[in-house]
Records
---
Amino acid sequence: MMKTTIDEVEVEAIILKQIDYKENDQILYIYTKEYGKLSVLAKGIKKLTSKNARACQQLMMSLLTIRLKKGMCLLIRATPINYLRHIQESIQSDIIAQYISEYYFRYIEDNHPDMMEYNYLSQCLNYLNNNMNPLLVYLLFNVFILNHNGVSIYVDGCVICNSSKVVAISLKHGGFVCSQHFEREEVLEAHTLKALRHICKIPIDKAQQLDISDSTIHQITPIIEAFVDEYTGIHLKTSTFIKQLV
């Protein structure tokens, strides 16, 4: 939990969202390692003379000096670290990044630091900035959403009998099923099942090792989306735009 202090602290922050407040101010929603998600009042940031404005754009990493307070913190100084500018060069990457930031803004608890939350956020944004397939990043992040909501897809064998000879994935049963236990599910090729398992199991900092074809990613995408819809009830506005990419 966040420690309450009147002292100024310096933190590396990812800017999740900006909301206009009064004539020249904004409220920044940020995520930090030390304090988790915070809301920060940035006074005068909309003025042309503001020295902090360039470091407080959505979806960038900055070094912020803030005054910690219960409720809303106060921005003192801001210095850019990484603009993540390559994300904006691809409409697909930009939409996926918006999807990620929307989830953090709407569903991540305030003032509750969590290293897994921070790592997924920073790694996914860095992958998008470094030209990883945006839909693969989207799949990896949806696995995070499932895990974050207490859901895991069983991919270590048949979810019913644990047989290693799996042929499909069952939304109803929550994981892989073998030839004896699949019902009306689509039979998937071995390489597709293998890719699904890797996406569900790989640590986010090792994801650059994945070698999955675009066609397989497109095949897996509606499967992962169906699990998110069925088991979490999470519905993000950005999803509408993502469906046009698949």
Note: Residues 1-5 have pLDDT under 50 and may be disordered.
---
Amino acid sequence: MKIALCVKQVPDTSDIKWTENNTMQREGVESILNPYDVYAVEAALKLKKTYGAEITVFTMGPMQAEDILKNIIALGVDNGVLISDRKFAGADTFATGKTVSAAIKKILPDFDIILCGQFAIDGDTAQTGPCIASLLNIPQVTYVKKINEYSDGTITATRLLDDGIESVKVKAPALLCILKSEFEPSRALINGIIKAQDTKITTLTLEDLGLNPEDVGIKGSPTYVSKAFRPEVKHTGEKHDCLETGTGAEIILNKIKEIGVLG
């Protein structure tokens, strides 16, 4: 079994900066592994432990993203691929999907499963995984809570829906988007850390992928951010010391009347 694991580095929420095109600045900004991708990593490692899978992790971003790939390899992932070129900057989910799918076709064309986190906390669109599946013309399963079994080329998984849970079967090759789970994420051991330091990360540029510069990055993005801003925080609450006076209920009733809820 061969697994393509797609992860994303996201800006630390306390250190978000914007470019002149209203896209998030990623180069030179402190970043973390997208929290939902942590569970996609765990799903891949469980498949490796059970079925002897080979895992190749892919990410698109600036050169500093190599550190995140090394951290994931230290957990037990086999190979790392960094998709990095200034022409990829500012990509929306469609342009990102096009770039990542091209990288998977080049490096791991005979993959069995692609794993992604369901959401990315810097966009929360849940579109990149489905874009990759669509561009590779393979089936997809979203909102996956657990991968139950892989047998004879068929994946059995449990999905979490608004109105309950659903058990599904899908033929490989397929893409699965993973939700947060209850288990504790793995920690790297010393042997894994040593392996990660010795593992060479494959870097792919626009030229390596053979893509048209007009089809990637901000030029290849059909959507754009028209405005980016931090919402103004307004504190309009009032504090009343009414424990001794016993007037709390009366104060609340009067406030409700002021806003027109009660006549």
Note: DSSP finds seven helices and eleven strands in the chain.
---
Amino acid sequence: MPKFCANLTWLFQELPLMERFAVAKDAGFDAVEILFPYDANAQDIVDQLVRHDLSMALINCPPPNYTGGDQGWAAVPGLEDRFQRDFKRALRYAKTLNAQHLHIMAGEAVGDAARAIFVENLRWAARTAPKQMLTIEPINPVDMPGYFLNDFQLAREVLEAVDAPNLRLQFDAYHAARIHGDVPALWAEMGEYVAHVQVAQTPDRSEPDQGEIDYPAFFAMLDAGGYDGWISGEYKPKGETAAGLSWVQ
């Protein structure tokens, strides 16, 4: 049985952040993720999680909201000190929220030097936080031009090079479709590396219902293969969020 999670950065935006936890629970979700929760008081978020019996599935690193700015530092040569400083701050937040996953963003970079520093930074992060599950996520180059980790094969090579038990793959089916096209075929190849799944329909990143990706078949594939992690709705609702939640049924 798939376990569905609500991305509160994208969903229920018709409400203030602190009011989204209650409606997410009422909609049937048992977990939430917030991409950049750092502008909120961590204890206020913990209070909402406890009050509504919700788990925090994932947050992003680095702490600053990257909108209009840099998209992480993990693969950017010369910014190792900044990466380590920001990772430690994000890790403190993740521990406070008891976040299951901490997604490390690669940033804008290219070439062998970027790959080498990405691997080294991830090795350092995995050693620094051995009890925290870390993830990396390939992001398509149309939505995020210049982002270093823009291919799933590259992600697998990085994971194998780092070779840490607490570093896994974050599989966003929307990005997978934009990058590789065939989501089920890619899952068959990459599923063993995956700790967290995110979903949205292509091409408009809307509700994961009717569209190019057959999500009922994809969910059944994950179920049949024994995937027991969260499947998070990370999409742009066409209208009010509650009106577009038939995909979780």
Note: The chain has a mean pLDDT of 95.
